[in-house]
Amino acid sequence: MLTFQDVKNNVVIRTYIQRADESLVALGYTEHSFGHVTHVAETAGYILKTMNYPERTVEVGKIAAYLHDIGNVVNRVEHSQSGAIMAFRLLDHMDCDPEEIATIITAIGNHDEGTGQPVNAVAAALILADKADVRRSRVRNQDKSTFDIHDRVNYSVTHSRLEISEDRTEIKLELTVDTEYSSIMDYFEIFMQRMLLCRKAAEHLGLKFRLVINGQLLL
């Protein structure tokens, strides 16, 4: 069976992830390279494992998460759909099981807040893991005077933690925001749609989604 490590070590896949991120550098986006996709993969795996999904589902979730942004090599617009098609071809050539390919490409094709929905557990875990990855280290623009709202919001987040409660009834995204760079209102201006999708994703997994910023419960 295809493993997460097989996918991580695949030279072709790594090339597409790297080139996709280069396009986003040119567009002024935050980091979407190996740091982001590895973090999202590990977080998706944590969510599925904590919710007692089978080990194979956890592995499939990590593969989907690692590949989720590969479509940016084509274009940022509709990157979830182009990424799903790319992932299909790559995984098919790696002799991945068709049932698992179907789950993976469904999750990738549904991870973006513009068109996505948590249609299965892997998609739900990917949505939560991806949208929770807000942090200062993803901002590449070093000139604070030229920050746009996305730079300001990401740069303002000095601590981010996604955690499922011990009784497995809630999943909480806890952020520490330095309001010198961005207001909490700025966060909601650009991330409200993402947070609403996170709530749907959490509900699919039988969880309540909670958002805590600077100690205050906001969702």
What does this protein structure show overall?
The protein is globular, with a radius of gyration of 17 Å. Helix 3 runs antiparallel to helix 4 (55-67), helix 3 crosses helix 7 and helix 7 (121-131) packs antiparallel against helix 9 (184-204). The protein has one domain (4-217): Orthogonal Bundle (Hypothetical protein af1432). It has a four-stranded mixed beta sheet with strand order 1-2-3-4. The protein is built from nine helices and four strands. A hairpin with a 5-residue loop joins strand 1 (157-164) and strand 2. The chain has helices spanning 4-9, 11-27, 34-50, 55-67, 79-93, 98-109, 121-131, 149-156, 184-204; strands spanning 157-164, 170-177, 208-213, 216-217. By secondary structure, the chain is of the alpha+beta class.
